[in-house]
Design a protein that fits this description.
13 helices, single chain, alpha+beta
Amino acid sequence: MKPSFNETRTLLQQAVSNRYFSGASLLVFLKGKIIFQEEAGFTSWPDGGLTPQPVGKETFFDLASLTKPLATGSLILLLLQEGALNLDDRVGALLAEEPLSQELSVTSVRALLNHSSGLPDWRPYFSMMASGSPGQKALSATESTIEERRSWIYQAIHREPFVYPPETKSVYSDLGFILLGEILEKKTAQILSRLFQEKMVRPLGLKDLGFIPIEKQTEQNAPLFRTGRSFAATEKSDFRHKIIQGEVHDDHAYLMGGAAGHAGLFGTSLSVYHCFSEWRNGYYNRGKLFSSSMVSAFVERDRFAGDWGLGWMFPSIPSSAGQYFSRKSFGHLGFTGTSVWFDPLADLGVIFLSNRVHPNRDNNALKAFRPLLHDMVYREALDDQT
């Protein structure tokens, strides 16, 4: 008997009524098959100055940090399989033409993926850029080119002092994944968005997943940016003087043209499912692109001391995945209100996309809601399976 998910559906609607987010898309899959997909709410609030549209299956969400495992992590994995990269490669060798701090030059690809490099979690480069930083001149965000801003941010990370001894702990870091994006581009001589298209989107047929360039938003340059497609709104930005919709929420990814190693990916819940399915299939040795041994190197928890694998996180206590997902589960969260969690013991996955930062990031109700949602999904999905 197919689960009804009536309680899950009610929970979603209540969350919209309580203004946890204006809209959301939820997709549940079990043993490789979608068993539930539901949308709720609208692309924006009616009092925000935008025209709300009902969230549908084709509504795009800003995936925020889901970019890290789904785009950057996937591309790193593929280059590792090809022998073009090694987990123990040092940044100094990969970016040999760049002046790097001594600490960064001996940092490995593995440490960057594992958030154990020693780099800080985040720095306000979008504001530092206007006034300059040690060793770098000031740069106007409005009068400079995207390439100038990308270069400025990369150079700032190259000089960034470490905040703890490398590989002694894991501290979630946007900076490490921005740097991985630079490494991918240098190694392949392609920009990140095109590399993702070539190595992931086309082979897997992911037509509704990709980066959206800040400039030239046309169907030719950004296949996702098509007439008639809706986007969930995110934050009212003081930096950009508008409510953000249809362009990346993260300010650093915005300054870098819409695509970076840490953020910038847009997609629907179905497209995220098709992308993540390659990780699931690879885990069970049925991947089209990913080998089982390589996926295990990224997500097998017993290989790691803490709650981070390579690009993916494991459930902590308490966990955003709730109380039922097993210790072997892996997933990731996105700042805008997105998440993916997968339990390989139950072969159960939950993709949840929302815009909890609309109209501002002060809304933290999702922190308590998300575990409740995953608990409800787990019970309704598996009650009829036992």
